[in-house]
Amino acid sequence: MERLIKFSKTIRNNWKKSAVGVFALYYGAATIKEKYEINLLMRAACREAVKYGDSLIPMERNPTLVTVILNPVANKRKAKRDFEKYCEPLLHLAGLQVDVIQTTSEGNAKEIVETLRGTEAIIVAGGDGTFSETVTGLLRRNDGANQFPLGILPLGRTNNFGNSLFEGGKGVERVKQLIEASMAIIKGDTVWKDAMKIEPMVHEEESSSRPIYAMTSLEWGAFRDTMAKRDKYWFYGSLRDYASYIFNGYKESLNWNCSGVIKYTPPCAGCNNCIQKKPEVKRKWSFFMPSAPETATTTVVNPECAILQELCFKTSNLRIRPQKFGQSEIPSLSVVIGKNKYSYSEFVSEGWQRINGIDDNNKSIAARTVELIPNESGPDVIIDIDREEFEVKPVKITLLPHIVKVFCNNNKMVM
């Protein structure tokens, strides 16, 4: 009893040191628990991957070759470490022949994929930026290369597309996401996804630029600008996204007045004006060899497909992304035009909701093609395409339905 009383007095007289000690003890225990749970997850995943590696293949068949496009500086240079720790061992245990190519600069992934030969699948180890570059390089080819599966290992800081396929999180949940993405590649289940073809609209005397392809969104306005400034508030840790809205909600430097003209055509299920047929790939794994793409012929006539509608807009937020419209199952672009004016509290409130994945902008325009003609352009006016920054200029956005084949978990698809 005397020892207990003495211990209590010591704690009371040194309460600051005691509080630090309790916090350190709690942090240490939580870290040990997290590592133990991750170890259990990896052990179970390795046992499952080995089953695929032990399966027999024909003698004349070489092990499946996959090429990994790794961005080593993604997620503050943590991407390479996480890939080697959680993803690469599973791919090797499954009997895959893994060829890792590290990007060396911005845009390097496009160059790699445009000239890639002799592989059976491409795996993107990085974030939205690396994935967007890979898709652009893949779809710029004219040899039907998009018929071959594309895997995503969400190792970047922003993984919107990866999170749509595999539920993400932090700590143990993040490792679980990487394991699930790796196992999807090993199992070979795939799904076709829509993409956006974004072409600059140039005058006759100007030289045309090559198109950019995007999978998630095109965004312009104050919300985009605010998230672009979040790194300035790194000292707030996990709260920096919230702090970014608090400290920028009143600034005039944001793009509060995004205005221009939108010309769009309505969604179409497929007619002789817009449909394209993908060539058949009979085998589950096929060598990544050039082949001439096939074009489709159809007798379906849709006179409304080419009708161009025009809309003038002025808003603080514009977002265009691929989305299925309603319950009609017709692939379309979703054009969301936000409010024209926000009060400080409204802006911060909606920004925080976006951080938590809540989007109240249910009203949208469904379209197959969109011509975006801004009233102002220049190097100071920035637009986001799959979280990559570009100068605002007139562009034509075309929906390409079911154009990219990606690995997925068919049992747990998040649409």
Automatic annotation (TrEMBL):
It holds the Pfam family DAGK_cat. Its EC number is 2.7.1.107, 2.7.1.138, 2.7.1.94. It catalyses: a monoacylglycerol + ATP = a monoacyl-sn-glycero-3-phosphate + ADP + H(+); a 1-acyl-sn-glycerol + ATP = a 1-acyl-sn-glycero-3-phosphate + ADP + H(+); a 2-acylglycerol + ATP = a 2-acyl-sn-glycerol 3-phosphate + ADP + H(+); 1-(9Z-octadecenoyl)-sn-glycerol + ATP = 1-(9Z-octadecenoyl)-sn-glycero-3-phosphate + ADP + H(+). One of its GO terms (molecular function) is ATP-dependent diacylglycerol kinase activity. It is found in: Mitochondrion inner membrane; Mitochondrion intermembrane space. One of its GO terms (cellular component) is mitochondrial intermembrane space. It is an enzyme of class 2 (transferase). It is a peripheral membrane protein. SMART domains: DAGKc. Residues 61-201 form the DAGKc domain. Its cofactor is Mg(2+). One of its GO terms (biological process) is sphingosine biosynthetic process. Keywords: ATP-binding, Kinase, Lipid metabolism, Membrane, Mitochondrion, Mitochondrion inner membrane, Nucleotide-binding, Transferase. Belongs to the AGK family. This is Acylglycerol kinase, mitochondrial. It comes from Papilio xuthus.
